[in-house]
Amino acid sequence: MGGMESEVDGILVAAHELKAPLAVLRQLALGLPGMDVGGEQMRSEMVSVSERAIRQVNDLTRIRRLEDGLFVMEPVAIRAVCDEVTAELTCLFNYNQRDLCIKYSNRARLVTANRDLLKSVVYNFLLNAMHYSGEGARAELLVRDFHDRVKVVVRDYGPALPMDVWREMKQGWVKRPTSIAMRPGSSGLGLYIASRFARAMGAKVGAVRHRDGTSFYVELLTSKQASLWT
Hints:
Layout: H1 2-30, H2 37-65, E1 74-77, H3 78-95, E2 99-104, E3 110-113, H4 115-132, E4 138-146, E5 149-156, H5 163-171, H6 189-200, E6 204-210, E7 213-221
C-alpha cells in the first residue's frame, strides 16, 4: 500500500510541475498575432488542448485533498451537470468527427454529490469515449433511474476494455493510471480520476464490456430533498 501511495504522490508532484508550462503555452497561443482562418483554427485547438490538460492536472492535484474531507456533499441537479459538460465537449466531438448522443430518462432529478467532483467524473468518462470511439462513430450519454439511485452511463464504440482494467472498475476504482492495451495513447488517467472522485462521494463506478465497445457508469444516491423540487 505504501508503494502505491508513493507512486501516486510522484504523479501528483509531476502534475504540479506541469501546470505552469501548460499555462504558459496557453497564453502564448492566445497571444499569437492575427492569422488567416486556418491559423485561427490551429490557435483555437492549441488553447483547447492546453485547457484540457490543465483541467486534468487540476483534477490530479485535488486527489490528495480528498482525504481532508473538504468537498461538501449536497443535492445536485444531475441533468444540469451533464448539460454543462456536454456543452464544453460538443465542439471537441465535432472537431474529431464523433457524434455524441444524449438521453435523459431519470425521474429523480437531484442526486447527493459534490458538484465539482461529479462534473469531473462525467467529463472524464466522456473524454475517454471521444478518444476511443472510431472516426464517425458515436458515443452515448445516458442518465436513468436505477433502484434508489441515478445511473449515468457513457457508452463508447471503441476497442475492447482489457480484463484487468474492467476488474478494477468492477471493484470500484482504478488503483493507478495504467496504459490500456488496444486503446493507443491511453494512460487510463481519466478513468483513474473518475474512479477516485466517485469513491470520495460514496458513489459506485463500474464498466460493462461489449463486443463493440465499453460502457462506463457511475451510480449516485438520489437526494432526499428531491421531493422539494418536484
